[in-house]
Design brief:
- The protein contains 16 helices and no strands.
- By secondary structure, the chain is an all-alpha fold.
- It starts with a helix and ends with a helix.
- The protein folds into 2 domains: 276 residues, no CATH class; 147 residues.
Length: 447
């Protein structure tokens, strides 16, 4: 088949996904917008009344805003790392999942830092972080890391989009005029010539290596914000690798969930196959074993040390947060391992279920790292009232948290309305490679 005809065929195959919106999609989008609007209302309530409307107080100064920030940034860094590895090592099945991973990476880097802004009491002084940064502060380095990673991941995502923008520009005659203009502008004159293709592949490969390095460095900096303090539960030398493994754990899990939903809703069984779920499931199994090991090492060392501060923290975990502790560190780790370890249990639905359990368990794990630690300070608490000693999130915090998740999903849907979730250029590249292999094989047989 002629190359241009193949491109036209792919554009026609994916155009309904881009241009048509079903009634179910409209209802779903309306629901997400409603959740976001509730979050906007909650934001203005917090803005005008202050943090008194949240559960945060002098003792527990961080709540689920920081937990959500850690979770989303963790997700973005793991996505950047996974995407970089898939491109750098030219993994055969990368075309089915690479775009899902890249979109998750960029959106997580956009949504995650917003929760930091929600945690700041005086947004009118936010610009001081950039005007008067302290080079000694880990927070300054974290801002630099997040901004650098966001720019790097955005450029990387755009580079992978360019060939598809060119295909849609040339073969979307029936698309609306605004779409044609957008595709023409974003394709930046790309014509898929051998020279352009080779240059783009080289640049993308270089960026993938840079993204891997950025992901490791940036998430290590985030971990050091915690571990460089003397707080019980945070002062740990393994927090950087522990956070990186936790990030990969959540990243693989969210990718599996996204694969399942996109495959089922858009009927992409031909592109996202069972073999992709099994491969992702095996990776999740390995990561879950590593995560379980780091979690055990962290809690065992605190239990064995017999320090009074660590003993108080563990006592809080085993009493006030007992069921959350069990779910985060036992169910959230052992259930995925039990499902993924046995070959017969590795079905698409069971792998997705294991991923859901892993995501929930990891969010609880982040909660247990932040809140119980702040409830167990070194200095004695002067005000012993329940609301000052312990933390409970209010409806304001939950509304804004759900609004962040809704915004993440809504932006994902809107991006999938602009460009196919399965890279068309990747399909064409695979077909080119297959033709080369066949020609080489015929040549060898002939000789």
């Amino acid at each position: 088949m002629n190359l241009e005809n193949r491109k036209r065929e792919l554009a026609r195959e994916f155009s309904p996904m881009l241009e048509k919106t079903t009634k179910t999609s409209k209802i779903w989008i309306g629901f997400l917008i409603a959740v976001i609007l509730v979050g906007v209302y909650a934001f203005f309530v917090q803005l005008f009344k202050g943090h008194i409307v949240t559960g945060m107080r002098d003792n527990v100064v961080w709540g689920i805003y920081i937990i959500n920030f850690i979770f989303f940034v963790c997700l973005s860094y793991s996505g950047a790392f996974i995407s970089g590895v898939l491109h750098f090592f030219k993994t055969p099945w990368k075309n089915s999942v690479s775009r899902i991973v890249e979109i998750i990476t960029v959106l997580s880097l956009i949504v995650g830092p917003i929760f930091i802004l929600l945690c700041i009491g005086r947004l009118d002084r936010l610009h001081y972080l950039f005007i008067y940064p302290r080079i000694q502060s880990p927070i300054t380095w974290d801002i630099i890391a997040i901004m650098t990673d966001l720019i790097g991941c955005f450029i990387y995502l755009y580079l992978t989009f360019i060939p598809d923008f060119a295909i849609l520009r040339d073969h979307s005659e029936n698309a609306s005029k605004w779409r044609q203009k957008v595709y023409k502008y974003l394709a930046i004159g790309y014509q898929d010539t051998p020279t352009q293709r080779e240059k783009l592949h080289k640049i993308t490969r270089t960026m993938s290596a840079m993204v891997i390095a950025l992901a490791i460095v940036a998430y290590s900096v985030l971990a050091w914000i915690f571990s460089l303090t003397l707080q019980p539960g945070w002062n740990s030398s393994i927090f950087a690798p522990y956070f990186i493994i936790a990030g990969l754990y959540s990243g693989i899990s969210v990718i599996i969930i996204a694969m399942y939903l996109i495959r089922k809703y858009y009927h992409l069984e031909h592109y996202i196959r069972k073999v992709h779920f099994i491969g992702a499931g095996i990776v999740l199994l390995v990561i879950s074993l590593l995560f379980g090991y780091f979690t055990f090492s962290e809690y065992f060392s605190r239990w064995f040390s017999h320090k009074l501060s660590d003993a108080n923290l563990l006592n809080t975990l085993f009493t006030r947060y007992f069921w959350m502790f069990i779910f985060a560190n036992y169910i959230g780790v052992l259930v995925p391992i039990a499902i993924l370890f046995f070959k017969k249990l590795r079905t698409i639905k069971s792998i997705t279920f294991a991923a859901v359990i892993a995501v929930i368990g990891l969010w609880f794990n982040r909660y247990l790292i932040v809140v119980p630690t702040l409830e167990s300070p070194y200095l004695p608490i002067q005000d012993t009232r329940e609301e000052f000693v312990h933390y409970t999130a209010t409806w304001i915090e939950w509304s804004l948290s759900f609004a962040g998740v809704a915004a993440f999903i809504l932006f994902f849907i809107l991006i999938m309305k602009l460009v196919p979730v399965i890279p068309m250029s990747g399909i064409i590249d695979n077909e080119r490679e297959q033709k080369k292999v066949k020609k080489s094989f015929k040549k060898i047989v002939t000789e």
